[in-house]
Amino acid sequence: MTELKVTNVAKHFGRKNVLSGINVTFTDGQIYGLLGRNGVGKSTLLRLLNNRLLADRGQITLDGASVVDNEAAQNRIFLMSAEMLYPAEQKVSWVFKITKQLYGDFDDALAAHLVSVFHVDTTSRLSRLSTGYKTLVKLIVALCVPCDFVLLDEPVLGLDAPNRQLFYQELMATFTDRPRTFIIATHLIEEISQLVNRVVVIERGVVTLDQDADELRQRGKMVTGPAATVRDWLADVKVLRTNALGGVLAAYTLDAPLEKPLPAGVTMEAMNLQQLFIELTRKEDGAHAR
Ligand SMILES: Nc1ncnc2c1ncn2[C@@H]1O[C@H](COP(=O)(O)OP(=O)(O)OP(=O)(O)O)[C@@H](O)[C@H]1O
């Protein structure tokens, strides 16, 4: 099984320790949601995976071999980041051509399909493209490279809602045709929640959650009802946060016992991935971390 493995990785910038001991293994044929509050180090981790940055400590290996100064490994890992790394005066068609030269292959048929779906003018110079179209060009490249690991850092920046929807559909279609691993760092959690099958959360420099997305969804429940009854029923349950209104209490819980009968007047409903993420990464004082 192909594995991109991160062991005890630390990275600081100046006096700021961003990542302090990341341990996570990305395996093949998965779509990961890489989540974390602003500034927690998601882009930093993606850049380390892609060898654009060097770790202070720890190891990143692809199938057992370090990714550092390893051209063969780097040819299998592609990072689409927020920056536009191509010269502004070049045309869209040049970007596709140079990518093919760099990576040895390029899915021309898929690129032609995506160009048509998103109405990209391949004769246009990059400097002439709107923010959304620049993103679309980078996304087309990311979907057409022959890499086993495709890292997408805020992939839909600047895309309008219909194009975001189209992109998610196209991502699923190409993933089905050619399973590989996508690692998606985004704040639009609900939008990608149907795509991802694993969720990795970074907090305070470490991975605090690495779980199958369906399992995670099963764990989060909101329990609502008369305050005293809800508190009593939740005596042994992990409560992430409560919200009281009049005599009614809404409790965001993790691992509530589904087999335990609910008292009269108490309801339980699923939390979506976005709600779960918000509650899991909320600081105890109610303020958001960092
Ligand atoms: N080259 C750099 N030099 C100095 N500091 C940096 C550099 N790159 C990142 N940082 C700092 O490291 C921290 C983590 O940044 P990073 O971009 O990895 O976070 P992120 O989780 O991707 O954030 P966001 O969700 O806001 O995009 C931030 O405080 C950032 O300012």
**How many strands, what sense, and barrel or not for the largest sheet?**
6 strands, mixed
Query: Any idea how many domains?
Result: 2
Structural class: alpha/beta
CATH arch. level architecture of the largest domain = 3-Layer(aba) Sandwich
Which fold does the CATH topology of the largest domain refer to?
Answer: Rossmann fold
The amount of beta strand, in percent, is: 25-35%
Q: Describe it for me?
A:
The chain is of the alpha/beta class and 290 residues long. It has two domains: 3-204, 3-Layer(aba) Sandwich (Rossmann fold), CATH 3.40.50; 216-280, Alpha-Beta Plaits (2-Layer Sandwich), CATH 3.30.70. The chain is 32% helix and 31% strand. It contains ten helices and 14 strands. The strands form three sheets. Strands 6-7-8-3-9-10 form a six-stranded mixed sheet, sandwiched between helices. The protein has a four-stranded antiparallel sheet with strand order 2-1-4-5, covered by helices on one side. Strands 12-13-11-14 form a four-stranded antiparallel sheet. It is globular and about 65 Å long. Mean pLDDT is 93; it is low at 285-290. Adenosine-5'-triphosphate (ATP) binds next to strand 2 and helix 1. InterPro entries: AAA+_ATPase, ABC_transporter-like_ATP-bd, P-loop_NTPase. Residues 4-229 form the ABC transporter domain. GO terms for molecular function: ATP binding. This is ATP-binding cassette domain-containing protein. Keywords: ATP-binding, Nucleotide-binding.
List the helices and strands and how they pair.
Layout: E1 3-13, E2 16-27, E3 31-35, H1 42-49, E4 57-62, E5 65-66, H2 71-74, E6 77-80, H3 92-103, H4 108-118, H5 131-144, E7 149-153, H6 161-177, E8 181-185, H7 189-192, E9 198-203, E10 206-212, H8 213-219, E11 220-226, H9 227-233, E12 238-245, E13 248-254, E14 267-270, H10 273-280
Parallel strand pairs: 3-8, 3-9, 6-7, 7-8
Antiparallel strand pairs: 1-2, 1-4, 4-5, 9-10, 11-13, 11-14, 12-13
Adenosine-5'-triphosphate (ATP) binds at residues 13, 16, 18, 36, 38-44.
